Amino acid sequence: MNVRQVELFAALLTVTAIAAAVLVVGCWLLRRRVRMAAEMLEAISPYVLWLAWIVAATMTLGSLYFSEVAGFVPCTLCWYQRICVYPLSVVLLIAAVRRDRLVAWYAVPMLSIGAGIAAYHYTIEWYPDLEAGSCSATGPECSARWFLELGFVSLSLMVLVGCILMLSLLLLTPAPNEEEVP
Amino acid sequence: MSKTPVKKRSGAAPSRTPWIIAGAIGVVVALAVTVVLVSRSGSDSGSTGGSASNSVPLAQTQPVVVTGTPLSAFDVKQSPDAALGKVPPTLEGASFNSGKVTIAPGANSKNLLTVFVAHWCPHCQREVPRLVQWIASGQKPAGLEVALVSTSAQDGRENYPPSAWLAKENWPTPVLVDDAKSSAAQAWGLSSFPYLVLTGADGKVLLRIAGEIEASDLTKAINAALKSA
Q: Using N-to-C axis directions, what is the helix angle for A48-64 and A3-30, rounded to 10°?
């Protein structure tokens, strides 16, 4: 795969992640009215930590690919988002192995901060004058996208969607033991 | 917070793990196949990314010969601008289709507005159509010539190639294509995009602007600079 194909693949993964997040949130909203929704949440519950780790690991590997292989220099906001997501690729793996749902106490704050920064980043990509009136000639500009796939998927949206998917998995699915839910 | 991790449940329903793994692999494979199919259809269409004739590839960087003393880097916080009254270097190069383009302030005793843009800069993406409208609508001061320098082109970044972008925006004046090291931009003191330099009939710098500017404000700024010259 060349860089262009990886960009498209990552964009399609993002669309899949959006669908997954909508599914989880939808099931959570309908869990008391629709039996199937509650059953679906119950069904994925034992795998939530592994699923969240897969999302974090995919985001980390993708981020490293785009910066180290494709040569996309991360901007300041990109670095802040990396700080929030990279550690989770290790923390969630340990939690998944230990079946420790209490990891949500650590993961949710980091993901919330990461999602907030990514949301702001995505916003200034579409409305660059919210950040500044010009692009620096010397450094990576936060409002300048490296690419835009499918008309709306950029790197910052990938981070935002990944964070929201992990948040929905960790917060909206029932723990195997209700007493263990943070 | 002192609770121990959840223990594995006994007597649970048959494991769904194989189905979940198979489903995840299926999704990834389906996405990969989609990427391959889309990429093939894209390459089959033979897009050259901005070639006017679809037969001659356009150069997104061109050699530039810089003659003269470089301007100091533009600092918007510095007032007055240190470059005022200085003559920028002459730029000799080519357009996207390799036609010769020369930007020589004062050479034909006319006022000249030179605009530097980068295809990936969102502010340039907003400023270029604004300037096209500014020129077409007659808001541009009479007798003022406008030239554009396409600089800092990077393959793989958004909105590449700049030739296609400027063609799509119907940019109406000569375009000089900067080299891969952005020699023209550096020689003219560019520090941020978009970058506009107004030179008078004698070739001396009258005004430098960095960043987006509304058409009416640009007209006012140029008229004021020309008046004070």
A: 150
A12 in B contact zone (CB under 8 Å): yes
State how far Cα A63 lies from the chain centre: 11
Flag whether the pTM goes above 0.95. no
A144 touches chain B (CB under 8 A): yes
**Residue type present at position B150:** S
- Residues A158 and A47: beta-carbon distance below 8 Å: no
Q: Which ipTM score applies to this complex?
A: 0.79
Question: B15-54, pLDDT tens digit by residue?
Answer: 666 777 777 778 877 877 777 777 666 555 444 444 444 5
Beta strands in chain A (DSSP E): 135-136
Is the N-terminal amide bond of B89 cis, ω within 30° of 0? no
> Would you say residue B73 has pLDDT above 60?
yes
Q: How far A137 CA lies from chain B's nearest CA (Å)?
A: 5
At which residue do the structure tokens 């980091």 appear?
A: A110
Count of beta carbons in the 10 Å neighbourhood of residue B171? 21
